[in-house]
Amino acid sequence: MSASNEVPQAPTTAAFFLQAAIAFAVSLATAVVGILYLPIDPWQRGFLAITMLFLTSSTFTLAKVVRDRQEQTSVRARIDGARMDKLIAEHDPFKNVA
User: Fold this and answer.
1) Which residues form a coiled coil (predicted)?
2) Could you tell me if residue 4 is inside a domain?
């Protein structure tokens, strides 16, 4: 069975979701604090802040695209599997034998 035909996994647990949300919040907060306390000029601090904002939004977009592609593949795999099951169920191996 190839990777595109795998059965989708069960949804994530609430604990895993909470752990991921906390990890994101902590990493974003520490990056903001780090930028605020760097001994640099305000324009450099602003550049780093805009870069971090762009990186964060790009990460969300990439995660959504990857998830959407995985869901599309798994739905297509289920449809292909259902078509194959229908063909097998309708096939009569003794129909042309006589």
Assistant:
1) none
2) no
- Give the count of beta carbons closer than 10 Å to the beta carbon of residue 51: 11
52 assigned to some structural domain: yes
- How many folded domains does the chain comprise? 1
Q: Which structural domain, as residue segments, surrounds residue 16?
A: 11-90
A 10 A CB-CB count for 98 gives: 4
**What's the mean per-residue pLDDT of the chain?**
86
> Tokens 């289920």, residue?
78
Exposed e or buried b per residue across 54-91, where buried means at least 16 C-beta atoms within 10 angstroms of its C-beta = eeeeeeeeeeeeeeeeeeeebeebeeeeeeeeeeeeee
